[in-house]
Amino acid sequence: MKLLNEEYIKQAIPVREKNSYKGNYGKLLFVGGNEQMGGAIIMSASAAVYSGAGLVTVASAPVNVHALHTRIPEAMFIDMYDLDTLASMIKKMDGVVIGPGLGRDDRAIDVMNTVLKALTEDQFIIIDGDAISIYVNELLDHPDAQLIFTPHLGEWKTLSNMGPDKENLQDNIQKQKELNAIVILKKGQSEIYFEDEVWQNIPGNPSMATGGMGDTLAGMISGFIGQFETYKKGILSAVFLHSKIANTLAETYYVTLPTAIIDHIPKTMKGYTNPN
Ligand SMILES: NC(=O)C1=CN([C@@H]2O[C@H](COP(=O)(O)OP(=O)(O)OC[C@H]3O[C@@H](n4cnc5c(N)ncnc54)[C@H](OP(=O)(O)O)[C@@H]3O)[C@@H](O)[C@H]2O)[C@@H](O)CC1
Ligand SMILES: Nc1ncnc2c1ncn2[C@@H]1O[C@H](COP(=O)(O)OP(=O)(O)O)[C@@H](O)[C@H]1O
Ligand SMILES: [Mg+2]
How high is the pLDDT of residue 5? Predict the structure, then answer.
């Protein structure tokens, strides 16, 4: 297992080309946030916007539109239950995050089916939160896109049948291959399972144990992938900086709010930008 520490991330973040434009930095769709959990998809999309994603659209329950626009006017909005619009929107995207606050009811299952079927091979999808349960329970097919799962240990049990006391490196590698996906297994020191190697994150602390922290990570990962050369660089940099920011905040704060992490992303990224 490789260790994900300061050395890897140093100067990993690319400098923006002088004449680049928003289309160069990722077009992302966030799908989730039912009537009870709008905050989850708002945090996720905010994290992508603050990570530098070029264009962010949120597909959510209509009741969430004003809260979203108050928090991030940079994002666009569609009704996630309008399945035709949802399917046509997917076609314009580089990547999709689905699951934060999605719920698991029949409407959520329809949304999930629509998204997975509309994807094409040059796109990526991050499946998080409730979407993990739907993927497993509904026996959905692997989408025609790069698949990325971001389970916490409870969700990993749903995906792998291995509980927190049973999961282990070798069996996790085996399961990752069966899933044909990149797996970011979230825990105190999260592990990232790629096709050819496994990494362990070093920073992180218990001030992060608060609702919305994983929603925020999923948004950061998507935002980074949209701008980085490779999936590996984008994912590893996002996982590291998410917990690195939390460590800095935890020096003076008892609890680290996901929204506080989001606020600190742009300045922290600047500090790790490669000047060459
Ligand atoms: N503001 C909002 O809108 C927010 C919305 N949110 C949205 O809520 C949705 C559900 O997400 P969730 O993570 O709450 O799933 P949940 O069904 O409780 O977990 C499944 C099982 O896993 C277990 N488990 C969990 N963590 C574990 C661990 N580290 N290690 C071991 N076990 C662990 C857990 O066990 P338990 O805690 O019940 O003992 C349970 O049995 C999702 O869409 C998310 O985006 C939240 O993000 C909050 C803020
Ligand atoms: N004690 C801890 N130490 C380090 N990281 C933690 C700790 N508790 C939680 N985290 C991190 O917080 C995030 C929690 O994700 P998740 O449970 O999906 O949150 P939510 O669904 O509420 O957004 C993960 O990235 C996890 O690694
Ligand atoms: Mg979660």
Answer: 85
- ipTM for the whole complex: 0.97
Residue 36 CA: which ligand 1 atom is closest? 3
Residue with the nearest Cα to atom 19 of ligand 2?
214
Atom of ligand 2 nearest to the CA of 243: 5
Q: In this structure, what token pair is assigned to residue 208?
A: 């992060």
Of all protein residues, the one whose alpha carbon is nearest to atom 16 of ligand 1 is: 154
Question: Binding-site residues for (6S)-NADPHX, please?
Answer: 40, 101, 152, 215
pLDDT tens digits for range 14-46: 889 999 999 999 999 999 999 999 999 999 999
Q: How many CB atoms lie within 10 A of CB 67?
A: 14
Q: Is there an atom of ligand 2 within 6 Å of 204 CB?
A: yes
Enumerate residue ranges in the chain where pLDDT < 50.
none
Q: Which one-letter DSSP state was computed for residue 26? A: -
> Terminus-to-terminus CA distance in the chain, angstroms?
29
Measured CA to CA, the distance from residue 28 to residue 164 in angstroms comes to 32
| Ligand 1 closest atom vs CA 44 | 45
Rounded Cα–Cα distance for residues 135 and 141 (Å): 8
Which pLDDT score is estimated for 6?
87
Q: What pLDDT shows up at residue 275?
A: 64
CATH architecture of the domain with range 2-12+21-271: 3-Layer(aba) Sandwich (3.40)
Burial letters 37-46, b for 16+ CB under 10 A, else e: bbbbbbbbbb
The secondary element (H helix, E strand) that includes residue 261 is: helix 258-271
**Cα–Cα distance list, 8 to 4, 171, 200, 233 (Å):** 6, 26, 12, 9
**Ligand 2 near 215 CB (within 6 A):** yes
